[in-house]
Structures are given as structure tokens and as C-alpha cells.
Amino acid sequence: MIEINTPTIRGEHPIFTCISLQKLRPKDIGLFIPALRHTPIEAGVILLAIPLGIIEYHILKPAPLPGLGPGAANIITASLILIMCTGFLEELVFRGARI
How would you class 74 by CB atoms within 10 Å of its CB: exposed for 0-12, middle for 13-18, buried for 19 or more? Predict the structure, then answer.
């Protein structure tokens, strides 16, 4: 079993520390529920992202993450790692750059 013990999971990541020290609200860094008028555009982007992701996967054909074999627990672990360590933090960094 893989133990997840990263600063991101425990909430000690430098980005979160900076947000806390600056006393920023979620709305200040772009974390808010958007207006209903933007819902069709956002739904379209999400629906377009799914086939583009599948095409990208078939073009790149990535190797599996080392140390993770088949199984539901390993898929969940890999998903959490990718979401927390790349997706969420990249969004937060790039949204913060526009403040």
C-alpha cells in the first residue's frame, strides 16, 4: 500500500501558507460559484474537454505511474495525486497571478 504523506494533502503547501498570511478570501483567488449565465459556456467547455482528453491520451500513450498496479484503490490514489499535485495547484497558481 502506498502512503500519501505530501505537504499538499496535509495542508502545509507554500501556496496555502501565502494565502493564509495575506488573509485572502476564496473569492479573491477566483474560487467562487460563477453566474448562471455562464453555465452553458462552462458545460460546453467540459463536454469538449472529454473527447480532447481521450485524443490526447491516445496520442501520448503514457506509461502507468511507477509503483501502482491495477485495482480500484490504485486508480483512486493516482487520481488524487494528479488532482491535488497538478490540477488544483496549477489552477490556484495561475488564478493568483491575475490578482
Answer: middle
